[in-house]
Design a protein that fits this description.
globular, alpha+beta, 9 strands, Jelly Rolls, three-stranded antiparallel beta sheet
Length: 126
């Protein structure tokens, strides 16, 4: 399978530079996502173990800078970095960021179900 990265189907477009495009290939989720500077995903993972993302991810930072919070401290990823994130992390976007990421479908879906519920709750309180 193949597809132009920036033409993957849009799943969510929140505006202000926050967009998620993804497809499922061979039991994996491939995603191209953009995040504006200042997005802290901490509230999105509330209700998951340790209130952190529970899906592993393999990816590449196309542009930007993201701080990854973990129980053991964390790490900063920047343009050109290739990465693997174990379950138990939270991203904080320190610059406008573009990523290409691969995640196992089962763990990704279990996590995104909680994220979607938390986002919906945030939308109704605005």
């Amino acid at each position: 399978m193949h597809h132009p990265m920036k033409e993957l189907p849009i799943v969510e477009d929140y505006g202000d530079g926050f967009c998620s495009r993804l497809a499922e290939w061979g039991g994996m989720i491939v995603s191209y996502e953009t995040f504006p500077k200042g997005v802290d995903a901490t509230p999105l993972f509330k209700g998951l173990p340790d209130d952190m993302c529970q899906s592993p991810h393999w990816g590449y930072i196309l542009r930007g800078r993201v701080r990854i919070k973990r129980k053991d401290g964390g790490v900063v990823l920047k343009t050109g970095d290739v990465y693997y994130l174990e379950p138990g992390h939270v991203p904080v976007f320190e610059e406008d960021t573009e990523i290409l990421e691969f995640s196992p479908k089962k763990e990704y879906q279990e996590t995104i179900d909680v994220v979607a519920k938390n986002m919906a709750a945030t939308q109704t309180t605005k």
